[in-house]
Amino acid sequence: MRRLLITGGAGFVGSNLAVQLAKRHPDLEVMVLDSLYRRGSELNLPRLQGAGIEVVRGDIRNPEDLVRLPKIDAIVECSAEPSVMSGVDGDTGFPVHTNLTGAYNCLELARRDGAFLVFLSTSRVYPIEPQLALDLEESETRFEIAAEQAVTGVSPAGIAEDFPMGSGHRSLYGATKFAAEILLEEYRSDLGVPAVVNRCGVIAGPWQMGKVDQGVFAHWILAHHYRNPLTYIGFGGLGKQVRDLLHVDDLVDLVERQLLDPTLWDGRTVNVGGGRDCSLSLRETTEICRRLTGNEVEITPVPEIRQGDVPIYISDCRKLFGDDDWRPQRDPETILRDFYDWVLTDEDRIAQALEIKAPAS
Ligand SMILES: NC(=O)c1ccc[n+]([C@@H]2O[C@H](COP(=O)([O-])OP(=O)(O)OC[C@H]3O[C@@H](n4cnc5c(N)ncnc54)[C@H](O)[C@@H]3O)[C@@H](O)[C@H]2O)c1
């Protein structure tokens, strides 16, 4: 492989991938395309350029921005409107065209060049209603998935790839990503585009521009550091909702393996996440944030459930583990600490970029 394109490469996942792959593979030409739509992505530009990465300002929605690129050997599609709240205000065009038309434009580029595509999909492809209907158990700090369930593809280890896909909505974000997965399968089987689909749970780590609707663990630490109030939204307002989380460096390790062996990975669709052992409820996250930052912030309970929210999501990664010996290496505390250490290196610029109130001294 000579030239790798990372779309959305100035974002959280894309920039970490670009910088680390460029460092590990000096002969690889890493190229990033990004529109700098996400607030804070501009902070990554000096870092990317310092790593010798060519940054192209372009919009994934515009095929012209892609066809003018030189021949590409592999693409990692990291550009997205990744918020589960996107489109609920009626502004549906941006998520649909970025997540779906953008994926189509990447598939066309991959077809032009015979390139391998690594598609970053999401756990949000799994429909919401059956997740809301799961039997849960409740401990002092969190929800757990009960052992007995009425549907297939779910167990205390999490949601697996054979969870029923047919019933109900999944948010505009999830729907556009799922539609892109379906399109990708056509390109893979009939149009000669080798591709792998990673259905990621929550990814976290340094350089994440966390906000309330995307990047919740980063958002939680930032609020503690800058001493801003938080809310426990939905499911009784107790902060017992749970997500698994994966360190971005663990994801980089997996994507690197995939890029190095396209033949092995072509045609696979796998859940990728920290799993039950690397999961946190909001309450548990609060405890770690207090310990790390030394700050305690006001947290207001809001009992109403936010649109598209689920009480628990854990990636059951046993299919992936059967395919490969990759395993997540970092635990929740390490993930949050790495993120916080990064915040401390650049707190003023991060606050400014994310329009967070500066800490009161
Ligand atoms: N971070 C997570 O927890 C998570 C979880 C599951 C899946 N994913 C997926 O991983 C990928 C990367 O997510 P992320 O967390 O790095 O998001 P991010 O928002 O940090 O990065 C996305 C990047 O895409 C760029 N972008 C957005 N619209 C664009 C457009 N129209 N044209 C060009 N660039 C555009 C943004 O400016 C940003 O730099 C996404 O596909 C997302 O759906 C992320």
Overall geometry comes to globular
Instruction: Describe the largest sheet.
Output: 7 strands, parallel
The whole-number mean of residue pLDDT values reads: 96
The appropriate CATH architecture of the domain at 3-135 and 152-209 and 244-277 and 309-330 is 3-Layer(aba) Sandwich
Whole-number radius of gyration?
A: 20 Å
Throw out a few tags for this protein:
single chain, 361 residues, alpha/beta, Rossmann fold, seven-stranded parallel sheet, four-stranded mixed sheet, 17 strands, 38% helix, binds nicotinamide-adenine-dinucleotide
How would you explain this protein's 3D organization?
The protein has helices at 12-24, 44-50, 63-67, 93-113, 128-132, 171-190, 216-225, 248-260, 262-265, 282-293, 318-323, 332-345, 347-353, and strands spanning 3-7, 29-34, 54-57, 74-77, 116-122, 136-138, 143-145, 154-155, 158-159, 195-200, 202-204, 230-233, 242-247, 269-272, 279-281, 299-302, 312-313. By secondary structure, the protein is α/β, with parallel strands linked by helices. It has a domain at 3-135 and 152-209 and 244-277 and 309-330: 3-Layer(aba) Sandwich (Rossmann fold). The strands form 5 sheets. Strands 3-2-1-4-5-10-14 form a 7-stranded parallel β-sheet, sandwiched between helices. Strands 11, 13, 15 and 17 form a 4-stranded mixed β-sheet that branches. Strands 6-7 form a two-stranded antiparallel sheet. The structure holds nicotinamide-adenine-dinucleotide. The site of nicotinamide-adenine-dinucleotide has 27 residues, from helix 1, helix 4, strand 5 and strand 11.
